[in-house]
Structure formats: C-alpha cells, structure tokens
Design a protein that fits this description.
By secondary structure, this protein is of the alpha+beta class. It is built from 5 helices and 20 strands.
Length: 307
C-alpha cells in the first residue's frame, strides 16, 4: 500500500466535517470540497442528509445546481436523477435507465455538523463523550492552517514538543497506546512552568491530566481529566491547495462560568503557540527516537488508505 500520510494528492478514508447541519434545510443542496474533489451535500424530502460526487456521471455538470426530488438529486443540465446510493433513478428520453452511478459517501450528523466519510463504507465510528453527564457542544469558527491536515492532528501526539514549545514539565513519562484499530492515544500528566499557564489552567498545586487520541486520519479527541474536565474535538480536511481546514469543537459540562473560561484559555494558548510553527513547516518524515506516537499515527493513516 502506498503512503497516504501527509500526501499532497491522496485523501485518507476518514470522517470529515462537510457543513453545519442548520445550514442545509430540507430540499437544499450545497457544495463541499475535499481536496480537489467537489461533493454535493443535500437534504432529501424526509430531512435526511446525503452526499454524492458533485460531477454528474453523464457529462460532468455540477449536481449542486440541481434539484432535490422524491427519487434523489436531479441534474440541472439534462434531468438525470441520482438516488442516495448513487444509482441513476431516472433519465429523460431513455427507455431504460442508464447504469451510471455517482460516487456516494456515508453521512452522519453529530454535534451540529454533517460529517462525510471518504470511502464506500465507514471503517470506524465517530468518537463520543461518556454519557455520565450532559455536555454542551461549542464550535469555533473554521480556520485554515498552511500545512497538511495530518501534521495538524499529529501535533497533539508529539510528546516532546509539549516541554520545548509549551513549557510543560511531565510528572511521569507519557504513555502511548493503540486502544482500537485506527486509533492512537497518548496519556500525559504534567504541570506548566510559566505562572500565567498555571493560573489559567488551575495547576498551581495539581497536575494537568489529559488524554489525546487520534481517530483515523482527520479527527483528534482530547479529554482533559484534571484539574478541569472537558473534551475537545479537532478535525481537519485538506483543501485543493493541500492546506488544513480545521474545526474545533468543545464539549463542556454544565453552564458558562470559570471552568468554561479556563478550558477555552488553555486550548487557545496551546493552539496559538502551535500555529506559528505549523503555518511555516516544511515537513520531513525523518522520525527519531521519541517520535513513536507520530510513527504510530502515520502507520494508522497508511493502513486506512485513500479513496
């Protein structure tokens, strides 16, 4: 299998944020770009979201210009209609329906977003928070980082950079595990050295305990266990220029207050430090001792392959 990790042309079989759920009403169609590919997201007459390649298998017209009907998405150019599974369901002027198919993608809706899996079937499920308490999802505006999405996600597994870039001193060695296929986890315990960091995070007397897990090639799920308790979901997709279009979604307990402010501040300070490096990185896959989590992530991505 050829390498997919940090490839400029291959798009990993993984889940990607396509649109906010509320932005696509029943009967609406919207374009979504995944690398160089254009995908049509539409909501059928029953309100269910679907995704098809936007280029009509007839002559390549843009299906996002089409119309949602009972039998699927009708092309604006010649009226050919394609169902949710991609098969042509109707073509005006044809006695027999042509055996043309549009590429169809698995779709789920969660945390207020429509997610598309780049593959014929989903190879793994989206991660989820424990059900022991009620979580409120807060999504930040999308951003574009000038490097490959795999590098953005792998950054959280880069144990060494926490001490060098962020000034975090580990209380014990970070622990690497692979809890499930296509997942890589690093568990960390430590305390910031800077007073501002300690004040913001509430770690004057207590360590920061966190778990960072990548799911597939496009999702990272962070659980902060102490002294705060919250989750953050990072997701990134490649645009046509090879840059990373990111989404950051916080899952926070209870109601707005000091805990929320601290959670936002800790994550945003980390992201600010990371971005100035990632925006100018010219990646070289020259892994060394201590880079085992990064190597595990690259291996997991390559195992998934592209589509």
């Amino acid at each position: 299998m050829s390498d997919v990790f940090a490839s400029a042309t291959a798009v990993t079989q993984s889940w990607y944020v396509a649109a906010r759920s509320r932005s696509i009403k029943r009967g609406d169609t919207r374009a979504f770009e995944l690398g160089s590919r254009r995908i049509a997201i539409y909501r059928d007459t029953d309100g269910e979201a679907h995704a098809l390649d936007a280029r009509c298998p007839h002559l390549g017209a843009d299906l996002t210009l089409g119309t949602v009907c009972e039998s699927g998405l009708r092309c604006a150019f010649h009226g050919w209609t394609f169902g949710a599974e991609g098969a042509c369901t109707y073509a005006p002027g044809h006695v027999e329906t042509p055996s043309r198919r549009a590429r169809a993608y698995p779709v789920v809706e969660r945390w207020g977003f429509i997610w598309v899996f780049n593959g014929p079937t989903a190879k793994f499920a989206l991660p989820s928070a424990d059900d022991s308490q009620r979580w409120r999802a807060i999504a930040l505006p999308s951003q574009t980082i000038r490097c490959h999405p795999h590098l953005v996600l792998a950054n959280g597994l880069d144990v060494n950079h926490y001490e060098i870039l962020h000034g975090l001193r580990f209380s014990e060695p970070a622990r690497l595990t692979t809890p499930a296929p296509h997942e890589v986890t690093v568990e960390m315990r430590g305390r910031p050295q800077a007073r501002l960091w300690r004040s913001v995070s509430g770690t004057h007397r207590n360590d920061l305990l966190a778990r960072f897990t990548t799911h597939g090639g496009s999702i990272a799920w962070v659980t902060v266990l102490a002294p705060l308790h919250f989750h953050v979901l990072f997701t990134g997709r490649p645009d046509r220029h090879g840059r990373c279009v990111t989404r950051t979604i916080f899952l926070l307990p209870g109601f707005p207050g000091l805990a929320w402010a601290r959670a936002f501040a800790v994550v945003m300070m980390l992201l600010h430090d990371d971005r100035r490096v990632l925006d100018s990185i010219d990646f070289r896959p020259a892994f060394a001792t201590g880079d085992e989590p990064l190597q595990a992530f690259a291996s997991a991505v390559n195992t998934l392959g592209s589509w």
